[in-house]
Amino acid sequence: MNIYYGESPEETRDTAHAETTDFLQINQTQQHDSVMELTKAFRYVNVQFDGNVSRNGVSMLYEQT
User: Fold this and answer.
1) Which of 10, 36, 38, 39 is CA-nearest to residue 24?
2) Which of its termini does the chain have fewer beta carbons within 10 Å around, N or C?
3) Domain boundaries, the chain
4) What phi and psi, each to the nearest 5 degrees, are found at residue 48?
5) Considering only CA atoms, which of 2, 15, 59, 55 is closest in space to residue 32?
6) What long-range pairs does 19-22 form, CB within 8 A, spacing at least 24?
């Protein structure tokens, strides 16, 4: 799973030049919720799945200051 973060939709779609990313290896046979260890600041996110990964949904937690 590849996650591209940005301040605009265009920034998240420019995967070749993305400045803030996460690349995750998914190796689970059952549904599982996960929380990333490091926090990110972003307005938009582009989540791409490949291979045999399926998903029910993607959600982001937010912190308000």
Assistant:
1) 36
2) C
3) 2-27+36-48
4) -120, 135
5) 55
6) none
Q: Which of 14, 25, 19 is nearest to 40 (CA)?
A: 19
CA atoms within 13 Å, Cβ hemisphere of 49: 10
18: its two tokens: 């993305």
Q: Which amino acid is present at 22?
A: D
pLDDT tens track for 40-63: 889 999 999 887 777 777 888 887
Q: Is the pTM of this model over 0.70?
A: yes
DSSP H helix total and E strand total for the chain: 1, 3
Place of tokens 């490091």: 38
